[in-house]
């Protein structure tokens, strides 16, 4: 067999092997739940390299802003704590159940990352993990506030928020095929509004929405850690239904802290 033919056969074999891996082997990655040797170390290294290359070296413009901690805490509580835990230890309700599991933000690996790296990860997310991108939900200044709050969690001097968990009866109110209030409840829980505001607007402090209703904030977000929800996430019809659900408890006075 000529040398040229050997090269062609080898190339064809490599192509066939690649196709076989794509078609047969990679789907099994969906059921992969245990680390292979050095897999976790490789993953951590890969995240560090890509976040450093693409994240730049910017310092946190809100690092010394005391108001950022309040906004960052609210945003973290609603969008991050469900996986990373209220204390940042990765022990949120979904944190240990994902693969890979949620990062312990108080561990040395997270502490060693620069503010710019953390900002890039929060904004852009990480493929093939449970880490979503928040660029469409939060403005850059809000993401910097989340970074500031993560640093406070790492120092151990952050005040956390305990949000009431929904009861079975409250969850049963949600029905996307029910009346307007039931559909609004379905939107409220599906979009994670209860993670910040409580199942009936009964979260503590500024996160309580009892006694007030501001559905226009759903579209715009605000600088207190509230993300914005475009029409691609909540349609106008869903927003109308959501308002009906919010009216159910908006008339209840907010409890003092």
Strand-helix topology:
Layout: H1 3-25, H2 39-55, H3 66-79, H4 81-84, H5 108-111, H6 115-124, H7 140-155, H8 168-172, H9 180-190, H10 193-197, H11 216-220, H12 236-250
Describe the structure.
This protein has 257 residues and is mostly helical. The protein folds into two domains: 45-155, Cytochrome Bc1 Complex, Chain D, domain 2 (Orthogonal Bundle), CATH 1.10.760; 168-250, Cytochrome c-like domain (Cytochrome Bc1 Complex, Chain D, domain 2). It is built from twelve helices and no strands. It has helices at 3-25, 39-55, 66-79, 81-84, 108-111, 115-124, 140-155, 168-172, 180-190, 193-197, 216-220, 236-250. It is globular. The relative contact order is 0.12.
SS strand fraction: under 5%
Question: What would you call the structural class?
Answer: mainly alpha
Profile the largest sheet.
none
Shape: globular
| Count of helical stretches | 12
Number of strands: 0
The gyration radius over C-alpha positions equals: 23 Å
Give helix % range. 40-55%
CATH-scheme architecture of the largest domain? Orthogonal Bundle
Q: How many separate domains?
A: 2
The CATH homologous superfamily of the largest domain is called Cytochrome c-like domain
Q: Could you name the CATH topology of the largest domain?
A: Cytochrome Bc1 Complex, Chain D, domain 2
């Amino acid at each position: 067999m000529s040398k040229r033919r050997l090269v062609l056969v080898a190339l064809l074999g490599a192509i066939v092997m690649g196709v076989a891996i794509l078609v047969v082997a990679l789907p099994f990655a969906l059921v992969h739940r245990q680390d292979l040797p050095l897999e976790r170390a490789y993953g951590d290294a890969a995240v560090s390299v890509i976040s450093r290359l693409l994240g730049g070296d910017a310092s946190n413009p809100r690092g010394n802003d005391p108001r950022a901690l309040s906004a960052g805490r609210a945003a973290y509580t609603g969008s991050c704590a469900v996986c990373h835990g209220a204390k940042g230890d990765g022990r949120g309700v979904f944190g240990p159940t994902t693969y890979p599991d949620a990062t312990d933000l108080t561990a040395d690996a997270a502490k060693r990352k620069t503010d710019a790296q953390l900002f890039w990860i929060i904004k852009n997310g990480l493929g093939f993990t449970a880490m979503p991108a928040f660029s469409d939900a939060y403005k850059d200044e809000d993401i910097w506030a989340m970074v500031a709050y993560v640093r406070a969690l790492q120092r151990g001097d952050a005040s956390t928020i305990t949000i009431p968990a929904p009861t079975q009866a409250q969850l049963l109110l949600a029905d996307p095929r029910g009346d307007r209030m039931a559909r609004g409840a379905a939107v409220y829980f599906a979009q994670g509004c209860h993670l910040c505001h409580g199942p009936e607007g009964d979260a503590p402090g500024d996160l309580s929405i009892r006694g007030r209703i501001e559905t226009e904030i759903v579209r715009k977000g605000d600088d207190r850690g509230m993300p914005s929800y475009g029409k691609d996430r909540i349609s106008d019809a869903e927003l109308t239904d959501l308002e009906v659900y919010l009216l159910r408890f908006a008339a209840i006075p907010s409890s003092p802290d």
